[in-house]
Specification:
This protein is α/β, with parallel strands linked by helices. It is built from 5 helices and 6 strands, in the order E-H-E-H-E-E-H-H-H-E-E. It has one domain: Alpha-Beta Complex (Ribosomal Protein L13p, Chain: A).
């Protein structure tokens, strides 16, 4: 009788992970965030394993120029509750874009990562910058076509 063994791949070391750069200018927020989340988790690789962090690093530039479709520019709000009664805080997206333009893309990607113990480690590999300059040139990031 022949016995088949199941093999589990090991998570790649930090040095073995690839670096990608994405230009977010004139890209739709949700569609861009889903593609970035796939690369961060490693679902684009044949060795994907749900319980391991298999993903690569993603550097996003021009995050302040990301597009929103429909009426989201006027209607979308970020809601936060402090934990005290009556302390529901709402910030319109125009205020968030003005104060911290990278937060829009960071929260969109974070919402597409499963809520488990790996989420923190997956999101550490996301680097978002409002302008075209980034300090990760030494890693030689390759452009990710989205």
């Amino acid at each position: 009788m022949k016995v088949q063994k199941t093999t589990t791949p090991q998570a790649p070391k930090r040095e073995e992970r690839k670096w990608y750069v994405v230009d977010a200018e004139d890209k739709v927020l949700g569609r861009l965030a889903t593609e970035i989340a796939v690369v961060l988790r490693g679902k684009n690789k044949p060795t994907f394993t749900p319980h391991l962090d298999m993903g690569d690093y993603v550097v996003v530039i021009n995050a302040d120029k990301v597009k929103l479709t429909g009426l989201k520019e006027e209607q979308k709000e970020y809601i936060h509750h402090t934990g005290y009664i009556g302390h529901l805080r709402r910030k319109p997206i125009a205020t968030v874009r003005e104060k911290n333009p990278t937060r829009i893309l960071e929260e969109a990607v974070a919402g597409m990562i499963p809520r488990n113990r790996l989420k923190k480690f997956v999101l550490e590999k996301l680097k978002v910058y409002a302008g075209t300059e980034h300090p990760h040139g030494g890693q030689n990031p390759t452009p990710l076509n989205i």
